[in-house]
Amino acid sequence: MQKREQLYAGKAKSVYLTDDPDYLILEFRDDTSAFDGEKVEKLARKGMVNNHFNAFIMGKLAAAGIPVHVERLLSDTQSVVKKLDMLPVECVVRNIAAGSLCRRLGVKEGIDLTPPTFELFLKNDALHDPMVNESLAETFGWATAAQLTRMKELTYQVNAVLKKLFADAGMLLVDYKLEFGVFKGEIVLGDEFSPDGCRLWDAETREKLDKDRFRQGLGGVVEAYEAVADRLGIKLPK
Ligand code: ADP
Ligand code: UDP
After folding, report:
1. Which ligand is in closest contact with the Cα of 131?
2. Cis ω before 115 (30° cut-off from 0)
3. N- or C-end of the chain: fewer Cβ atoms within 10 A?
4. From CA 105, how far away is CA 109, in angstroms rounded?
5. pTM summary value
6. CA 8 to ligand 1 center in whole angstroms
7. What is the chain's Cα-based Rg?
8. Where are the alpha helices (DSSP H) in 114-210?
């Protein structure tokens, strides 16, 4: 597959066209950002770790019947993915209270959420990714009612698969964000699943093993991501 011109450079990944109009190359960079791009740093190895992590998780989801965009790893920091028409909403499921839920509702971090919550946010850094709902999404044309139903269904399916995967490796899947797009009329999971976009705690100690280490200046960010990968049995290059 031939790499062509860059289509887009986001905060953490760059997207390249290829000679096949149905496929893109997604390049995971070491750039790490938080607070809608206000805090930015380069963390060595993060791009490589997240690329391998994402390919592994997407493979598990595909095996469970969830349509995903990742086709294959191309290099340590690049993957070949289906070219999706991304929908500008982020789907968040929470199993345990943390982050913006605690800030918004004043609930205590760490309480169990039963049933798990589902939230929608508009992907818009300038507006700080405001929380929206299905009515707003439909009215403003961000997604149709049928697309919203499908995204919600797939987001919960992902929860069933990944809660168990992480639990079996001694971790709690606290919450996560998913982005979907449309490929030949079908809703497909896009973007990435990595510790950059989810919260993972050690099941015993509740130590944070995800991007909250960066947000909260705890240090050992990539080391924690690598420890999670190791627990899942992901083989990373030295
Ligand atoms: P951001 O745009 O939030 O800064 P990234 O740095 O992760 O995020 O950039 C990756 C961009 O690529 C995102 O805008 C994401 O929606 C988009 N994207 C992810 N997967 C695909 C795909 N399969 N097809 C098209 N666009 C994608
Ligand atoms: N998340 C993300 N990108 C965003 C917003 C949230 O990947 O733009 C992830 C975040 O890492 C966490 C989950 O979605 O795993 C819920 O995030 P929350 O709403 O608590 O926001 P935060 O406190 O991270 O700003």
Report:
1. 2
2. yes
3. C
4. 11
5. 0.98
6. 8
7. 17
8. 134-139, 145-168
Atom of ligand 1 lying closest to residue 81 CA: 23
Q: Which residue has the tokens 């191309």?
A: 74
Distance CA(76)–CA(159), nearest Å, equals: 27
Per residue in 30-60, pLDDT (tens digit) is: 999 999 889 999 999 999 999 999 999 999 9
Of 193, 110, 195, 181, nearest to 151 (Cα)?
181
CB 56 within 8 A of CB 232: yes
Size (the chain), residues: 238
pLDDT value for 12: 97
- Do residues 40 and 32 make contact, with C-beta atoms less than 8 angstroms apart? yes
pLDDT in tens, 106-139: 999 999 999 999 999 999 999 999 999 999 999 9
Does the CB atom of residue 124 touch ligand 2 within 6 A?
no
